[in-house]
Amino acid sequence: MAVKETNAAKGAAPASVGDRASAWMSRVNEFGERHATAIIAISTVLTILTVTLFATYFYRRAQNERAEQELGEATSVQTLRELKAKYGSTPAAPRILYRLANQLYEEGKLEEAKKEYGEFQTAHPNDPLKERVTAALRSLETNLKFQQDDRERKLKEPKLQTHPRLLGEAKDPRLQFGPSAQPRPTVELEVGAGTSKVILELFEDEAPKSVAAFLKWVDDKHFDGIKLDVVNSDERLATLPKPADSVPYESTPRPADMYSLLMVRKEGAAENLGGQFQVLLKDLPDLKEATIFGLVKEGGQILKALKKDDIIKTAKVLTRRGEAKAPTPNPKPQ
């Protein structure tokens, strides 16, 4: 008679899928209960880290926007120094440092300006403004050399006594290193449909070839009746091309601030486009390959209101460097 094999002899039946899932969940629950504190701590740290990263990003973004806004309004060395200390870690830091050095240079504080330019070169060696900093340093070194090497010799040279009417000017501390600087050349533009007039001041010391060419074009009536174009919506105002000799490119140390006058370099050449110029209607800190040869002294808002195909009715030279002014005649007796 056949004997049936018992369950014990056959071995335990294999566990079902549901049993295995239940056992796995039990182990997970057991692990969670054992390490609950560590899991909560890690989750809390990750949450805090995520929130911190987002907060840092938006804070830095807002801080940089504030830095750019305050930089646009800064006009004094003291304000620029405060901005440097306040926003030294933002993307605006190179521009702040550059503006501070330029302001010190313009005020005749050459050693302080040299220190700020040097700090720029060390802290921001790859910034787009580095070429302008290098050019400004070359100019500054020339002036420092005069102060250090030639000042005493110049002061000991024989000179005429000051006329009594000029004693007040002679005591001016700005004259301690020599006579007053001659005023820059100026040009008047009559633009638009009415009689709106704009005064341009030209930086002859910084861009002598460009200024000489511009004055010649004005004398030749080159710009009389020329049409204007608005470039990139409201970025700059440009005269339409008109044949004229090109001008050697000159690298200038000034930033491309609003109302700057500039000539644009020919692509791949060592010359600027001849017979035309542009006026910036907003700050362009990243502008390259342009010679800044002057500034709108009066009438900036008039230029901003011009539209495409408006014209320069007339252009004339008001003053030149070194030219004598005609005396004012005495009024006729009544």
Can you tell me about this structure?
With 334 residues, this protein is of the alpha+beta class. The protein folds into 2 domains: 45-147, Serine Threonine Protein Phosphatase 5, Tetratricopeptide repeat, CATH 1.25.40.10; 186-319, Cyclophilin. The protein is built from 10 helices and 10 strands. A hairpin with a 4-residue loop joins β1 (186-191) and β2 (196-202). The chain is elongated and about 100 Å long. The protein starts with 6 loop residues before the first helix and ends in a 15-residue tail after the last strand. 22% of the residues are buried.
CATH architecture of the largest domain: Beta Barrel
Percentage of residues in DSSP E strands = 15-25%
Sheet of most strands: 8 strands, antiparallel, barrel
Spatial separation of the terminal alpha carbons: 161 Å
CATH hierarchy, class of the largest domain: Mainly Beta
Q: Please state how the strands of the largest beta sheet are arranged side by side.
A: 1-2-9-6-8-4-3-10
Oligomer: single chain
CATH superfamily of the largest domain: Cyclophilin-like
Helicity, as a percent range:
40-55%
Question: How do the SSEs run, as a string of H and E?
Answer: HHHHHHHHEEHEEEEEEEHE
- Rg, Cα atoms, Å: 35 Å
Q: How many structurally independent domains?
A: 2
Q: Please mark out the parts with pLDDT under 50 across 5 or more consecutive residues, or reply none.
A: 324-334
Shape: elongated
